[in-house]
Design goal:
The complex is a heterodimer of chains A (513) and B (262).
Chain A (H helix, E strand, L loop, with lengths): L4 H6 L5 H11 L5 H10 L7 H35 L2 H8 L3 H15 L2 H12 L3 H26 L3 H8 L4 H40 L2 H10 L3 H28 L17 H21 L22 H4 L3 H29 L4 H16 L2 H8 L7 H26 L3 H8 L4 H39 L2 H11 L3 H31 L1
Chain B lengths: L16 E8 L7 E8 L4 E5 L6 H8 L7 E6 L2 E2 L4 H8 L2 E4 L11 H6 L8 H9 L4 H10 L16 H15 L3 E5 L7 H14 L5 E6 L10 E6 L2 E7 L5 H9 L7
Parallel strand pairs in B: 3-8, 3-9, 6-7, 7-8
Antiparallel strand pairs in B: 1-2, 1-4, 4-5, 9-10
The chains are: A mainly alpha (513), B alpha/beta (262).
């Protein structure tokens, strides 16, 4: 008995059964009136000019942080990615060991979430605008580096070999043979990272690093839901515009889509690309000046407090098994919710054309709404714990996976679904058999990658929901227990690297079949 | 242009398919312009025309994929239902063999064959079929009818040869048990040896009580059909019994000349 592809897509949704059974016991009995007020406020956002002015200022800071962090991450990531490419070192010195070494080093900054970087830097250099930029640039740079080196190593190298055999110097041959085919994938991924950077900058704001996230948190805590929704709608408008802009540039420049089943023509309109880079540079520097970013100030570190009395003993005495177990459980629940519920919802609304539009809006809100705020909102009616945290994290990732599923579904083409419908099959079964069959493996492979990201993200809901390593980490950070912090970061790094390895294996298995 | 004769318009009988004054607009010229035809049970009709003549559009209208701007589609004497559920019941009686086959590559042969039954299955059976393919005996029977070995049932469709896939697509139609078989250029880009085999198979399956409407662009394959309908630039040029068809009419269809009145 082997489940077929479309069934595999739905299998993670089975997590809903135990969750629905457990949910009634998690309700604490109050807060429904607040949830009602929150939902109603979505239709009546505040139009007070003072509020809007403050929100717009916050949005500007968030967008600036995102742009600068993204730009720095690209610069760092491309350089580190080239330096960690096996192909590059094999071509230059005949052996890939420097690449292997650098890949292992880069795994550490990659495994630590931008929020932890932000909070660490906050402790080390104090509050300043450059912190959020660095907090985004460091892990994103390491992520971009991995993608660049993987892309480069996966490209066919027959052209490179031909140039080297013809006597071209290795650096020139690398640039000529590998540069043009690398560029489309890199630009496409870079665009996606900008969307992620906007979400990360909002999240960092929630934890006190400035910008719209901070405003959203304050309005939620003071139950000013109308003001909260004004901020959310503004953020939604910016995010959707950014996604639309990146999508249209991707199509115009013939770049591959993230979830594409077939890559389109690549590298068209080279002049426009150069022009875009030329426009981007002054914009980045202008934003940096406007935000008063001072790179030199980051070098002035504050003295760290001494290790707490008792030394490492107190750090080792933490309840490690339950912290790790809860983190892994939280990851699995949130990943299963996000991966399984997106296709389930798409199937539910399949007969109604407006249903898909409604889902798109819901998913867009899920993407932009920072998970700690969702967790706070859920705490109005639910008790804190792993399930509450998983619901918050699952909703956010549902927004990301749902959008990808729709993109994949469109890329798969309507033909087989239409064929089934023309034979009298209902719209839901036609979607399940006709479209989900083709995209199941790619979608699940992306889901495996997302699970790996969710593991890193557990830290952001840990504090609010009071569970897992994330909760302990934030607690240790605010009590200046740097011994605990060091061990916790080590545990997080080991766990995320293991998760990354597992998700890599799952992805390869899914895509190779 | 001569008014086309209508051999399939026998009074009193209820046609399996009837199209009345079908008009489908196109960018520069209509894709179908006032096309009417009638197909009785047991009739095997070839739809002949050059590329772009409107054959695929006509078949898309006939199976409900495309809604005409003007005109009426009648299935077994009933107009196309407005309610989705009722229309699906009507469409379940029409089987289409698509030019690109539209098989589900990722599923096994048996699951593909059973996808022809989805219209009459509920969710539990449809889901179970993805876990544990159902109705093995009926599927084996369908494979035998198209001269395929039932041992192929568990094989993924993606691993089959071109000829085997064509036959699996026909077997899927047989599992659907339609009253009307529509086939859109099923013989295009096929090995010449396969063409005759598959055509015979389709003609065999199109016997009464079924009806068959098959689009072709090769006039040399008309043997075995009862009627031939000629389409040119979205218009019906002729509708003749095979015995009444003259080679000049067929030539005119391809040369773009006016057909000689019969």
């Amino acid at each position: 008995m082997k489940p077929a592809a479309p069934l595999l897509v739905l299998a993670p949704a089975l997590v809903l059964l135990p969750l629905l059974l457990l949910l009634p016991s998690l309700l604490h009995g109050g807060g429904w009136d607040l949830i009602g007020q929150f939902l109603l406020a979505a239709l009546q956002p505040s139009t007070d000019p003072v509020v809007l002015n403050s929100l717009l200022r916050g949005l500007g800071i968030t967008a600036g942080m995102a742009l600068l962090g993204w730009f720095c991450s690209l610069v760092l990531g491309v350089a580190a990615g080239l330096a960690s490419s096996r192909l590059l070192w094999r071509t230059l010195i005949g052996h890939p060991w420097p690449a292997e070494l650098l890949r292992r080093v880069l795994a550490i900054p990659r495994s630590i979430h931008e929020l932890i970087w932000g909070l660490l830097l906050l402790q080390l250099v104090g509050l300043q605008p450059a912190i959020a930029v660095l907090a985004i640039a460091i892990p994103y740079g390491a992520l971009v580096a991995r993608v660049v080196s993987d892309l480069l190593d996966a490209l066919p190298n027959s052209n490179l070999q031909a140039l080297i055999t013809a006597g071209s110097p290795a650096p020139a041959a690398l640039l000529t043979a590998m540069g043009p085919p690398l560029l489309p994938g890199l630009i496409s991924y870079g665009g996606y990272r900008l969307e992620c950077a906007l979400r990360s900058a909002t999240l960092l704001g929630v934890f006190g690093l400035g910008g719209l996230g901070n405003e959203l948190l304050l309005t939620l805590q003071s139950l000013e839901f109308r003001e909260l929704w004004s901020g959310l709608w503004l953020l939604l408008a910016v995010m959707l515009s950014l996604e639309a802009l990146i999508g249209s540039l991707r199509r115009r420049w013939g770049m591959p889509a993230r979830f594409s089943l077939k890559s389109s023509g690549v590298g068209r309109r080279g002049r426009e690309l150069v022009l875009a880079v030329l426009i981007l540079l002054p914009v980045v520097f202008g934003v940096g000046r406007a935000m008063a970013i001072d790179p030199a100030a980051v070098l002035h570190w504050q003295a760290l407090p001494p290790v707490a009395p008792g030394g490492w003993g107190s750090a080792l005495a933490l309840p490690w098994p339950s912290l790790v177990f809860n983190t892994v459980l939280l990851t699995l629940l949130a990943a299963a919710l996000a991966v399984g519920v997106a296709p389930l919802l798409l199937l539910l609304v399949a007969p109604w054309p407006w249903g898909q539009r409604l889902l798109q809006l819901l998913w867009a809100i899920g993407r932009l709404w920072p998970p700690p705020l969702t967790a706070l909102l859920l705490l109005f009616v639910l008790k804190p714990g792993v399930i509450t945290a998983a619901l918050a994290l699952g909703f956010h990732n549902l927004g990301i996976l749902g959008r990808l599923l729709l993109e994949g579904s469109e890329a798969a083409g309507p033909e087989r679904q239409q064929a089934l419908q023309c034979a009298g099959c209902g719209p839901r079964l036609a979607l399940l058999y006709g479209r989900f069959s083709g995209l199941a493996r790619s979608y699940l492979a992306y889901g495996a990658y997302r699970a790996d990201v969710i593991l890193r993200e557990t830290v952001v809901v840990g504090l609010v929901a009071g569970t897992g390593l994330g909760s302990q980490l934030t607690e240790s950070l605010s009590s200046f227990a740097f011994d605990q912090l060091l061990l916790l970061l080590g545990a997080y790094a080991v766990l995320t690297l293991l998760g990354e390895d597992l998700s890599d294996r799952a992805r390869h298995r899914l895509l190779q079949r | 242009m001569a008014a086309p004769s209508r051999p399939g318009s026998a009074e009193g009988s209820s046609p399996v398919l009837q199209l009345r004054g079908i008009h489908v607009p196109g960018r520069q010229q209509p894709r179908l312009d006032g096309v009417s035809l009638r197909l009785e049970a047991g009739e095997r009709v070839a739809l002949l025309g050059a590329s772009g003549a409107g054959k695929s559009t006509l078949l898309a209208v006939a199976n409900g994929l495309l809604q005409p701007e003007h005109g009426e589609v009648l299935w077994c004497g009933e107009p196309m239902a407005r309610r989705r559920r009722a229309r699906r019941r009507q469409q379940a009686r029409i089987g289409t063999l698509w030019q690109d086959l539209r098989l589900i590559e990722e599923l096994s042969v048996q699951q593909n064959l059973n996808s022809g039954r989805l219209a009459s299955w509920g969710w539990p059976r449809a889901l179970l079929n993805l876990l544990l393919p159902l109705e093995s005996e009926a599927c084996s029977q369908a494979l035998r009818q198209v001269d395929l070995d039932p041992q192929l049932l568990n094989q993924p469709v993606g691993e089959l040869s071109g000829g085997q896939r064509q036959r699996v697509a026909i077997a899927r139609l047989l599992r659907q048990q339609p009253e009307l078989l529509l086939a859109d250029e099923p013989l295009a880009s096929l090995d010449p040896r396969l063409v005759r085999d598959l055509l015979e198979l389709l003609l065999e399956q199109g016997r009464a009580p079924r009806a068959l409407l098959l689009s072709l662009h090769r006039p040399d394959l008309l043997e075995g059909f009862d009627r031939v309908i000629g389409l040119r630039q979205g218009r019906l040029c002729f509708d003749r019994r095979i015995q009444e068809l003259s080679s000049s009419e067929v030539d005119a269809l391809y040369a773009g000349l006016q057909p000689v009145p019969a």
